Amino acid sequence: MNWQQRAYCGELDSAQVGQTVQLFGWVDAVRDHGHLLFIHLRDVSGIVQVVFHPEAPFYAQARQLRSEFVVSIVGEVKTRAADTVNPHLNTGTLEIEAKSLEILNQAQTPPFEVSEKGFSGEVLPFKVDEDTRLTYRYLDLRRPSMQRHLVERSALLKIVRDYLSEARFIEVETPVLTKSTPEGARDYLVPSRVHAGHFYALPQSPQLFKQLLMVGGLDRYFQIVKCFRDEDLRPNRQPEFTQVDLEASFIDETFIYSLLEGLIHRLFAHTGVTHLPATFPHITYDESMSKYGNDRPDLRFGWELVEVTDVFKDTSYKIFRMILETGGMIKGMNLKGQAAKLSKNILQEELAKGLIPKLGGKGMTWMKVENGQLDSNIVQFFSEAEKAALLSRMGAEEGDVLIFVADQDRALVHSILGQFRVIMAQRCEIIPENTFAPCWVVDFPLFENSAHGLGAVHHPFTQPQGDITGLDREALLTQKARAYDLVINGEEVGGGSIRIHSWTQQEQIFQALGYTQAQIEERFGFFVRALKYGTPPHGGLALGVDRLVGMLLGVASIREVIAFPKNRMAYCPLTESPSPVSSEQLNDLHIRVTEL
RNA sequence: GGGGGCGUAGUUCAGCUGGUUAGAACGCCUGCCUGUCACGCAGGAGGUCGAGGGUUCGAGUCCCUUCGCUCCCGCCA
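The joint structure predicted for all components is written out below.
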């Protein structure tokens, strides 16, 4: 194999005209003119056209070529005549006149087309059932767009490594076979052969190990690492996913913010995005919930939630009055300038009766601002004072649409309006394209109510903002954590916290979570012990690589940037895993499978 | 775990209130074609309509069961 002399198809340029080059690749397309024969030859770098003339001794062999055959071609780089240039191909001003042809391998007709013919202007939509793509992922990966995804992912991860190395971070690997901890998601378990009846767990994150690395004095650690969570899947969720995991000692929140802002700037600059703010705005959890209805605000557009409970405190409108009398709240949103797009029929039938109930709401009140008046099916129930107050509170102008949701359950009001805001913004096409709006969400609550008492909102190693000594449950629920999320365009791309480094404080948290001394010892004994041996103040963050790369490349799903993803059922159609194993294997592992 | 949608040729899809031999495009095969590049022209092959059961004179179409995929909710410290 003459690999030393190899040239890459997509990298040929006019400087090489007249040279003889060696190419390896796959046949992307064949155009047989009976005499003249053209092929597109594809390798990882791109595509070039090869011409076979009928006089060539290997012409008969060339006519045997089919899609996806693997070939070695030696040929002369030639300039194309002006009227035969292909403007859609990077190498479109050139072609290779074949001097020899070797068919290195034949190929069956693939189950779907690998060629994207995409150099023909706009990229044709690739519509093949995803399970079929995953079953033949090696063919799917041959498509130029998939190769671009993985090439770019590699380039972006190199930027991460370079950046963090420059900032004195040390890349350390942590175990994949580790200890199951009852917090958080379900663990993937790995049975031990040597220790009968005992199990390792695959890490949900290297959380405890990276903190132990800080105790170990490594000072600044990072890792690009797989994490595993055995939960039901979502379009943007895989059972195994990749994080940029990092942790640093003797730092505070400001270190993390500026470190990550620098990294995000570099990553986005790589893809040509330069409009990110120098420092990212901070928004508190409470403010995010109240203005955007969730803790991952999409700041690319306005449409903030506005409370109008007080406007209707004496209303005669029966539905509002009933809800307010039982302690409910009314919030609304101004769909700025959307009156023309949203007819009364759409507002009432599709949204109030369709979408809102799907989101969990009982109803929605809407009104349009037309001819200087509020107009809707129920506007006659409101007083002039109420209408005037609404107009001013909502900043309403001609052509606006106001919508309101009322409910006893304040969290439900936020949840409905938060989802409604995003869905309607997409539907009304008000979200600017190719725009990225990052922010830090800060001041998360430390605890939340859970089925069995208090639960940690972030995780139990997060430092409280204040002293929690002696606080009762009610007071604990009002405490804030030193936790932060990095949110871009309404997607959480990373999260972290300043950790607890005092073992007494760590035990306070465990106790608040309702763990007994025995449970603490059994689950986290090794960790609490470590905290007692001189733990430095430290904190860190983890970035979701799949989501971030997916966002940077503008793909529809994280599966587009993962070489071998699982499907929605956590199944791999390519390898057909998971699969049954032999009874010998089970016996070795001391496992008996119960009847299904 | 709960709810919605889908399953027809290799691929993407059409197939009306149940009614002759289930169609289209692309792909594939054969032939023709010396400048194409989504080449063109002519011809051809290719289907247990996801599976099982039921209703009916008759089912791709209606009903039940089941499997698979997908979306939403729960879940995801």
